[in-house]
Amino acid sequence: MSGDVTIDNTGATAIGSAKVTSAMLAGSIADSKFNQLTSTGKVADSALSTNVDLANASQIISGIKTFTSTVTVTGNAFFSGRFPHWL
User: What is the pLDDT along the chain (87 residues), one digit of tens a residue?
Assistant: First the structure.
């Protein structure tokens, strides 16, 4: 166990690299203990649910989407199925 934990002269405690594994923590940390992510780029798209609309990727969205504000389409718009009444 020597070198696993160090305490400096200010009382700051550090745990050595790779001394705590994911298996040791599995299920032991409540969700309420995690901070909210507040900056972009912290979660890879591959880690998101398939129910999430990705901002910078092509994808097929099968559910009905309701927008309560203006929608801007750049490039070509393709409609499949029922056309909007304003066309």
Answer: 566 888 899 989 988 887 888 788 877 778 787 787 788 878 888 888 877 878 777 777 777 888 888 888 888 877 666 666 665
Q: Which two tokens stand for residue 1?
A: 């166990």
Helices (H), ranges, 1-87: 22-25
| Distance (Å, whole) CA 27 – CA 50 | 24
Round to the nearest angstrom and report the end-to-end CA distance of the chain.
72
The amino acid sitting at 26 is: A
Of 61, 67, 66, 53, residue with least CA distance to 79:
61
